[in-house]
Amino acid sequence: MSTETETSPETPALDPTNIVFSVEEIQKIIPHRYPFALVDRIIAYEPGKSAVGLKNITFNEPQFQGHFPGRPIMPGVLMVEAMAQVGGIVVVQMDNFPSGLFAFAGIDKVKFRRPVVPGDQLIITAEITKAMPKRGFVMMKGTIEVNGQEVNGKPIVEGELKFAILSEE
Predict the structure, then answer these.
(1) Which residues are catalytic?
(2) pLDDT tens for each residue of 1-17
(3) Where does the record say this protein resides (predicted)?
(4) Domain residues for 71?
């Protein structure tokens, strides 16, 4: 089985220079801060449905001091968190949801198809697949393309994310 990286000709390219929400606007929407703010900007947004974020991977990020010295690779758990943060942009702005802090309730079917390294640019998509406002529960599909590339026609990273609102207790 080949795992060649290829650029997808069928997928229309998003404009990475587009800014729907800047990093400053993102900080007004979700609570994450350095070193855990993993989205540089939102480049596409459909209220209540989906968002597309951008993250530039740089050598100066703290995780590369130990993951791995001499061969920096972006930790998979941080890429999953980046998908969650893009999803959070959608969820916390939904009118029919209670306000509060959303947290992971589960992740399923996560696949990593190639290493992400400094110099890569992540295009992160989060799309709501199921929302239960009365229960404060959301399911999403997350994907990450790297430098506009796929592996065997699939995104570099993909998975299903589940979120629940934390009680105020």
Answers:
(1) 67
(2) 444 444 444 445 689 99
(3) Cytoplasm
(4) 23-167
